[in-house]
Amino acid sequence: MENILGEDWIVTPAGGATGEAYFAQSGNQKLFLKRNSSPFLAVLSAEGIVPKLLWTKRLENGDVITAQRWLQGRELKAVEMREKSVAELLRKIHRSSELLHMLKRLGKEPLTVKSIYQEVYGQRQNQELPIVEKALDYLARELFEVEEHEMVVCHCDVNHNNWLLTDYGDLYLIDWDGAMIADPAIDIGLLLYWYIPKEKWQIWFENYGMMFTDELGKRMHWYVVAHTVQTIFWCREKQREDEQYSWLKYLETLMENE
């Protein structure tokens, strides 16, 4: 990385699951670098959804390095996910024809309820816990009742850690490695179930610009249950027992009325 920028730059790993992100600094200049980022990043930058993309360079080995403006800021707190700006930015993402066009050009296939169920069911083991079996039965039973409507670009990981609020008050949604073409109820369901008290859902939907319906609520619940079961299986694979226990307790609350 130092060879790209010059001797005056100090480059350090930025962490993350891929290990391909870095911070670079030279005096007062700061950059966020990433190796082999998707071309999708350029459209996200142009739409103002992620910090501005400054340049892209291709290395002799074929790797591509992107540099974004490094902005002083912080991740959102859980309670701040109720803010109007969050709903407005998510609406902008879901309604962007440019983002959708780019993902289609990149060959992304729509994520359907059938494909989600097949992936979840394929991860099960014999003698699953009763609450997991109950959830799998629910997903199968409701599979043909949960129909996708408009398919849009979904972030698919709207955890508050992925929302960047700069010191100037600008809000961005970062870490787009898991983006899919899918039902917007995936993003909406996870955000509302995790962060918004049910009595405040109506206000959130007004800020987002959509009417809440029972049919939408059914889709949201199905996706949240599916995501929770997938997370339980992931925790089991990674031997994260404490996290797995917490997600099992959460699944119990989701399945109380099913």
TrEMBL record:
Residues 12-210 form the Aminoglycoside phosphotransferase domain. GO terms for molecular function: transferase activity. Keywords: Transferase. The keyword Nucleus does not apply. It comes from the Bacteria. Pfam families: APH. This is Phosphotransferase.
